[in-house]
TrEMBL record:
Entry's Gene Ontology cellular component terms: plasma membrane
Alphabetized Gene3D superfamilies for the sequence: Immunoglobulins (2.60.40.10)
Name this protein carries in UniProt: Ig-like domain-containing protein
Broad class of where this protein is predominantly found: membrane
Residues of the Ig-like domain: 144-240, 247-336
Keywords, ordered alphabetically: Cell adhesion, Lectin, Membrane, Signal, Transmembrane, Transmembrane helix
């Protein structure tokens, strides 16, 4: 390519850049929440010869479902919003070719195709018929989206999370126009304390925590809330967390002893753990002296019981051992021997006999005191009768001698 051809090509490209034409940029589809507002982001271009006509006094018009100004006009920025079919205002500066518009109290009958028209001073009057915005009214807001991140890496909601890992749940929402702006909130079932951080300008809310076994199968719900004039509208998305963890033995595990020793052990883990019994350090299996049974409590819980018919010594110990792919746990039961229990029975028997003896002695003392009281009272009554039966001396008429 010689120099002349390069100059011609440059002039052609320059002409293409300098020669502007009428065009507009609009979103093809917009969703509006019934009873709320809607924002139409809009920018337009005009031919250079009309630049002088695009002043501060320029007017923006919106036509619905057609391009006839007389029949399809629904909004005119130069007239009062109250007099227009649509209530709203152009928030952009038309002089800067920004036709962004907000319509308020958008209703179902407002759905349709919207065309923009610019009218300036002089001869600038143009309807952008080639491009329109399709606005659809919905009764319910779109659902937010919840994503799971483990150690800052996104994973699928059904993947298992290992206990102790850093977890982040991110809730994001494609927002619709509303005043006040919509809000995001977190909740969980069952209810646990939540600590979240939000970026309202992007409508993103992050829930950060360290995964524990208590959060296994916990459902976390993110709710977007729109406060409208006459009602509140919400939408939700949720995720159920699956946490893997090493076995944990319940503190309620214990033993009882009558004629035989019966112990039970409960363990919880994900994956579901296995349980073993060790007597004095050796594994125990079913035999004539021992009987072991298991019961599945849940997808992560297991209960095992053991019945010991054999005699135990003071050194006998019983251990419950649980394990899965993530670790193990154990609990030691100190078993009292049969001799010790016999001694304890003897001591208790002696105490009971002693109490009975003391009680009998007390009863005897009370009875003796009562008998002594009765004897003393009898003597007093006898003496009284004796005094009453004594002979009174009388004087003889003849010899004046007292005769007894």
């Amino acid at each position: 390519m010689d120099t002349a051809e390069k100059i011609i090509l440059f002039c052609f490209l320059l002409q293409g850049v300098c020669c502007r034409d009428f065009n507009i940029t609009l979103p093809q589809k917009i969703e509006a929440l019934n009873g709320s507002c809607v924002i139409i982001k809009c920018r337009f271009e005009i031919r250079e010869i009309f630049d002088k006509d695009l002043t501060e006094r320029a007017t923006g018009l919106w036509l619905k479902d057609g391009i006839n100004v007389n029949n399809n006009l629904v909004f005119n920025s130069s007239t009062s919003s109250q007099k227009s079919f649509m209530k709203g205002n152009i928030t952009g500066k038309l002089k800067d070719k920004d036709c962004t518009t907000v319509f308020h109290d958008f209703r179902s009958d407002h759905s349709g195709q919207y065309y923009f028209r610019i009218e300036g001073e002089g001869e600038l009057k143009w309807t952008y018929t080639e491009t329109s915005a399709s606005i659809h009214v919905v009764d319910s807001p779109p659902r937010p989206t919840v994503q799971l991140y483990v150690e800052q890496k996104e994973v699928q909601d059904q993947e298992e999370v290992l206990e102790g890992r850093s977890v982040s749940l991110r809730c994001s929402a494609e927002t619709l126009c509303s005043s006040p702006p919509p809000t995001l909130t977190w909740s969980s079932t069952p209810r646990i304390p939540l600590s979240e951080s939000s970026r309202l300008e992007e409508l993103i809310s992050d829930l950060n925590f360290t995964a524990t076994h208590r959060q296994h199968r916990v459902t976390f719900t993110c709710t977007i809330t729109y406060q409208l004039q006459d009602e509140t509208k919400t939408a939700q998305d949720n995720i159920t967390l699956h946490v893997q963890y090493a076995p944990k033995i319940s503190p309620s595990s214990s033993c009882t002893r009558t004629d035989v020793t019966v112990c039970f052990c409960e363990a919880d883990g994900n994956p579901s753990p296995e349980l073993e019994w060790h007597l004095s350090g050796r594994p125990v299996t079913n035999s004539s002296n021992t009987f072991i049974s298991e019961e599945r409590l849940s997808s992560t819980g297991l209960r095992s019981s053991i019945t010991l018919h054999q005699s135990l010594t003071h050194t006998s110990t019983l251990q419950c051992v649980s394990n899965n792919t993530h670790g193990n746990a154990s609990q030691l039961f100190q078993l009292p021997s049969s001799v010790a229990r016999l001694n304890l029975f003897s001591v208790m028997t002696g105490v009971v006999v002693g109490l009975v003896v003391v009680l009998l002695c007390a009863i005897t003392c009370i009875c003796v005191r009562k008998e002594d009281g009765k004897l003393s009272q009898t003597k007093q009554e006898g003496a009284k009768r004796s005094d009453q039966t004594k002979v009174v001396p009388q004087k003889n008429k003849d010899d004046s001698v007292y005769v007894m």
